[in-house]
Amino acid sequence: MKIQRHKMSIVMLVVVFVLPVVLAKLALDQDWFDKGSTNRGQLLQPTIDATALLQEAEKKWHFVYVLPAECQQECKNAIYAIGQVKAAVGRESSRVNAVFLATEHSDPDSVALLENSDGLELLHKDANDVNKVFKHADVNAIFIADTLNNLVLSYPSVANKDQAIMDSRDMLADLRKLLKLSRIG
Fold first, then answer.
1. How far is 167 from 165, CA to CA, in rounded Å?
2. pLDDT tens track for 19-51
């Protein structure tokens, strides 16, 4: 009777401590629930190393946008959204930089506009260098780069002004979260 009670105690211990671990592992492996993510932009996995393009830029968090050959409404919305989000960051704005990459194919009017704007940085890069960095990614997007020049999040460029405003809210929310969690930059 005493041995049977001892065996029962061991079985109960196993059930109480091991069974939840086994069930949790099974739930993760079988995708029994939606894995939550709090970022609103598209998380880039793996990240894109943009050091070749951003090496002259300061060690800050960056918004990165490659100026297209023709700056149509999508491009204008992206430039506007980046400027607004950078301003909306408020007291943390010294930790954020807006970088626009211009190639020899970029729209000359947009390049001239950005060269004369305060708070927005324009870097002239060779188109081949830009293509090497973005070889597997759609360049028609706004990117957030960390302080080590890794592109970590992307937001598609959109032609609809209202949608662009909503996307800029998403960028602001993600950036604030990154700045809060990061002590660097």
1. 5
2. 888 888 888 788 777 666 678 899 898 999 999
Q: Cα(63)–Cα(140) distance, rounded to whole angstroms? A: 13
Residues 81-110 pLDDT 10s: 999 999 999 899 899 999 999 999 999 999
* Residue 54: half-sphere exposure toward Cβ, Cα within 13 Å: 27
SS3 content of the chain, % helix, strand, coil (to 5): 50, 20, 30
Question: How many Cα atoms within 13 Å fall on the side-chain side of residue 116?
Answer: 5
Residues in contact with 147: Cβ distance below 8 Å, sequence separation at least 6, in sequence order: 59, 60, 61, 182, 184, 185
- How far apart, in whole angstroms, are the C-alpha atoms of residue 154 and residue 144? 6
Residues 6+ apart with CB under 8 A from 32: 26
* Enclosing H/E stretch for 150: strand 150-156
Q: Which two tokens stand for residue 146?
A: 């960390």
Question: Which spans in the chain are helix H?
Answer: 2-29, 51-54, 73-88, 108-115, 127-133, 161-181
